[in-house]
Amino acid sequence: MNNKKYAQSFSFDNGLTLKNRFLMAPMTTKMSFYDGVITEDEKRYYHMRSKEVGAVITAAANVSENGKGWEGELGVYDDKHLAGLSELASSIKVNGTKAVLQLYHGGRMTQASVLKGVQPVAPSSVRALRPNSEVPRELKEKEILRIIEDFKAATVRAIKAGFDGVELHGANTYLIQQFFSPHSNRRTDQWGGSMESRFTFIEKLVDAVTDAAKEEASEPFIVGYRFSPEEIETPGIRFNETLFLIERLCNKPLNYLHVSLRKSDQISQHGAYQDKPMITYLHEHINGRMPFIAVGDIRTGEDAETVLQDSELVAVGRVLLADPNWVSKVSAGKEASVRYDVTEEERDLLGLTNGVWGFMQGMMPDRLK
Ligand SMILES: Cc1cc2nc3c(=O)[nH]c(=O)nc-3n(C[C@H](O)[C@H](O)[C@H](O)COP(=O)(O)O)c2cc1C
């Protein structure tokens, strides 16, 4: 019997129980059809990586047609996606593993070529400081309200498809984060300006989605929120602003908060918060008000135990791409047999077909052999 914390089950306030503390981190697969409908390859990829983790959080799925960020992205913006999403939920929900659909809108982090000639939209007409970024069109108020409705409709689709929850992707520079960021949000109406006003979109979005979940779900259904703790841009989100965000989110009927980090022990760039890793500050600030998911280069059971001193749950991403049986091997103390690197010959065996393989070449070149 494994007495590690990661092996313990975890129950959310609404009664949904995870059989252990590991979640598969949301990872874009770039495997869907051109219109966001899921492919057989994608279902196989998820099926291989479910079973052992407590829950799988899917790749970001776009809630609005003009929120698409890249080719091969999963879609949840139309009822045509329902059948495939139901199959996806079933392929994940094996051996008690729970399925969470990540909901997102790319905002300014996309290109007109991906949107078939349509200009990307964002809170303000400010280009991202990233290669190949384009000047977006500023959203009109009625379009902002429409996007909130799109997130709500996507939540209802997730419920109908049999998912156990949704995660709002407020991280990694996409639209939700763009509203909170003083770099991408220069609005002077109720949606921008002070930190409080830059939170308006998030507040209305979280209220709409949690209300929809409450009204539509007949089984325990969780709504989580993922955030990036700071930005490199100036102006940009700073760690003290993230603590404000967390404070406000703790007062919402959300079921968990999930940080997005490359390294779990990352230190803040903010001079006032450099005594300990960001996850420690975050966990202390949340102070048990909501379950907190940490993430970032977890490779061993000991890494997970360390992170679980500062979180209730832990997300693992890249290790599951290379080894779909990472959880059972770690839990059985067979870490020596974990596959950490992937060779081209193993791509098909591991279900890492075209899109995700290309993405991995950019995101984890050190682990491809
Ligand atoms: C191939 C790949 C795709 C990713 N796609 C997403 C995504 O769709 N949504 C998201 O929130 N994070 C995404 N991430 C970030 C991961 O969720 C995770 O935070 C990151 O990989 C660090 O965890 P790890 O070291 O365990 O892989 C992606 C990461 C990788 C490697």
Low-pLDDT segments: none
Q: How large, in whole angstroms, is the Cα Rg? A: 19 Å
The number of domains: 1
CATH architecture: Alpha-Beta Barrel
Number of helices: 12
DSSP strand count: 13
Named once each, the bound ligands are: flavin mononucleotide
Give the end-to-end Cα distance, rounded to a whole number of Å.
35 Å
The largest sheet is: 8 strands, parallel, barrel
The name of the CATH topology is TIM Barrel
Which range best describes the helical content: under 10%, 10-25%, 25-40%, 40-55%, 55-70% or over 70%?
A: 25-40%
Structural class by sheet pairing and helices: alpha/beta
H/E element order: EEEHEEHEEEHEHHHEHEHEHEHHH
Give the overall form.
Answer: globular
CATH superfamily caption: Aldolase class I
User: Which whole number gives the mean pLDDT?
Assistant: 96
CATH class: Alpha Beta
Oligomer: single chain
Query: What proportion of the residues form beta strands (DSSP E)?
Result: 5-15%
Going across the major beta sheet, what is the strand order? Answer: 3-4-6-9-10-11-12-13
Question: What this model shows, in words?
Answer:
With 369 residues, the protein is α/β, with parallel strands linked by helices. It has one domain (5-367): Alpha-Beta Barrel (TIM Barrel). The protein contains twelve helices and 13 strands. It has helices at residues 40-49, 82-92, 141-161, 175-180, 195-198, 200-216, 239-250, 278-286, 301-307, 318-322, 326-331, 354-363, and strands at 10-11, 17-18, 22-24, 55-62, 74-75, 98-104, 121-122, 137-138, 165-170, 222-227, 256-259, 292-295, 313-316. The strands form three sheets. The chain has an eight-stranded parallel β-barrel, surrounded by five helices. Strands 1-2 form a two-stranded antiparallel ribbon. α2 (82-92) crosses α3, α3 (141-161) packs parallel to α6 (200-216) and α7 runs parallel beside α8. It starts with 9 loop residues before the first strand and ends in a 6-residue tail after the last helix. The model has no long low-confidence stretch (mean pLDDT 96). Flavin mononucleotide binds next to β4 and α12.
